[in-house]
Amino acid sequence: MRITQSLNQTQFITALDSLESGLSQTQNQVSSGLAFTTPSQDPIAAGTVSNYDQVLAQSKQYTANGNSAQTGLQTEDTALTQLQNQLQTLRSLALEANSGTQTGEDLSAIAAQATQIQNSLLTIANTQDGNGQYIFSGFATQTQPFSLTATGATYAGDQGQQFVQIAAGQTVAAGDNGDVVFNQIKTGNGVFTAAANAGNTGTGVIGATTVSGAAGYTGGTFSINFTAANTYNVENAASVVVGTGTYTPGQTITYGGAQIALSGQPAVGDSFDVAASGNQNLFATVQNLVTALQAGANSSSAKPALNNSIATALNNIDQAISQTSTVQANVGGRLNTITTQQSQATSQQAQLQQSISSLQSLDYASAITSLDSQNTTLSAAMQAYTLTQGLTLFKYIQ
């Protein structure tokens, strides 16, 4: 093979290009602080870093989801605390009205305070988050969930519950709809209700109601009817007499697993109805109490009816407090779950970032040494190329 000057030049230029390319790559590494900036520079490490980046990005998205859910749940928790406080105040007012020493003016004042509480409850039920979305509307976050009516309030939201993913295979509810919090509240003692007939004329007042025996309340509907001042019978839903008994004031009447304490003296023909608990929205409970207080303020003869209405209201308020406590406990559990997961995610992200750094970060000491060596080599090569370019046979002919 004939070695020509042109071939020597081509090989030399190719070698110089290679040296310059290596020098440029090292300079880019030093300026960027990265061991490689393109996958071709280190395919294996680049592939591993790409996988780590994907896992890290996903973890950060889960963290963002958790932060969003956490903010929403904290807003709900605050609203539920306010709700509990208002319900406790309402309960205290009901007990005050039931003390037996209140005048008509006192009852009117208590009714006015209860109305104010109802308005406060409406504000809580229509709580909005920082984005202006209603937290108790389910999926219909742009719709105001509750509006007051003459008998309580209507619910315009839905039964949806939003979930967010906070980790692979793990989701958490980001809130609760208003139907669960404000509408699905058990009446009575949560198992059955006992109510005085509106037409009663005696002084019989319902007291504590409890479930009797291991079998508990059987779920039937029945009424306790007074056929004489000290005698009553029990009729089932078909108006068939299924039991009888004698009564003394303060006695607890037991039938079908239900225990109903009565005080006062029912009149002949008075009756008390017992049925399984249903659901009643909170605003109806408050409105019924207000209506009873207003009626009691206007009629001193309606005292037993007022006492029975207040007893019913107290039972329903207690159920609302219990329901709110249950929901709030669930919210607290979800917040704890998010906090735990966020802590784990923070550790995972730190480990991933450390692994990425160990693969991608530049060893500056080694890079600077390599840069100096490449500079020296390139400089020497260029000098050698310049010298060889000047060599010809005519230089040696005298």
Fold and architecture overview:
The chain is an alpha+beta fold and 398 residues long. The protein folds into 3 domains: 55 residues; 237 residues, f41 fragment of flagellin, N-terminal domain, CATH 1.20.1330.10; 86 residues, no CATH class. The chain is built from 7 helices and 12 strands. It has a 5-stranded antiparallel β-sheet. A 3-stranded antiparallel β-sheet has the order 6-11-10. Strands 1-2 form a two-stranded antiparallel ribbon. A hairpin with a 2-residue loop joins strand 10 and strand 11. Helix 1 runs antiparallel to helix 7, helix 2 runs antiparallel to helix 6 and helix 3 packs antiparallel against helix 5.
Summarize the helices and strands and which ones pair or pack.
Elements lengths: L4 H28 L10 H55 L6 H22 L20 E4 L2 E4 L7 E5 L2 E4 L4 H6 L8 E5 L8 E7 L10 E7 L2 E6 L4 E6 L5 E4 L2 E6 L7 E6 L5 H17 L4 H58 L3 H26 L9
Antiparallel strand pairs: 1-2, 3-4, 5-12, 6-11, 7-8, 7-12, 8-9, 10-11
Helix pairs in contact: 1-7, 2-3, 2-6, 3-5, 5-6
- Give the helix tally: 7
Question: Radius of gyration from the CA trace?
Answer: 41 Å
Predict the CATH topology of the largest domain.
f41 fragment of flagellin, N-terminal domain
| Overall morphology | elongated
The average pLDDT is 86
Bin the strand percentage: 15-25%
The arrangement of helices and strands along the chain is: HHHEEEEHEEEEEEEEHHH
**Main sheet: which strands, in order across?**
5-12-7-8-9
Which structural class best describes the helix and strand composition? alpha+beta
Level-1 CATH class name of the largest domain: Mainly Alpha
The biggest beta sheet, please?
5 strands, antiparallel
- Number of folding domains? 3
Strand segment count: 12
**In which range does the helix fraction lie?**
40-55%
Tell me what the CATH architecture of the largest domain is: Up-down Bundle
Task: Report how far apart the termini are.
Answer: 31 Å
Poorly predicted runs: none
CATH homologous superfamily grouping of the largest domain: f41 fragment of flagellin, N-terminal domain
